[in-house]
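Entry type: protein chain
Record version: 2
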Amino acid sequence: MSQSVIALLLAVVGVLGTLASALLSQRGGRQTKLMELQHAERQHASDKIAEGRRIDFEDRRACYVAVNKVFRRHQAALKNYFSSLSSNTVKEGQWEEIEETRHASRETYAEAQMVLPEEVLNSSAELVKRFNFIYGALARFSANNQRPEDDLDQVREQLDHATAGLYYLRQGMRADLGISDSSESPEATVNRSGFDRDSIV
């Protein structure tokens, strides 16, 4: 084989090697780019899930703060009015405070129904039912329009249960947020406080 043919073959092989190297480099670059894009997509999806969980947590926390605040105010207004009624020292504006806190509680509870998890919602519903019972009884006493079964001792008992229920509801909300290490479910703790669906008319 002549030197010129050998030189030509070497040149061809060199060109083919260069082309193959370029193609392999290009293919490797595409695979690397694809892997980077897939990693970025997975990271984006993970970040989106984490952001969704953060927003959900913040929404629940804000809801819990609002529920705790307005329920405490309503419970305090009911308790103060009961004390004044029992001692015949009801002051002007006390019933208006009950109406104001009751309205705030109803509004907050209506919003909370769209956010609260089932167990905490059930506990809240029991407490609202307790508040409504106390409100109705106090309204009848205030208007001197009592039913035969109305009794201030029963109202006092319901207020005590509401106070305990509010505490256990708060513990349940804290547990749901991971603030406390309560081993009981919110509904179990509230039921333990004396709630009985059949005890409230």
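Comment: The radius of gyration is 35 Å.
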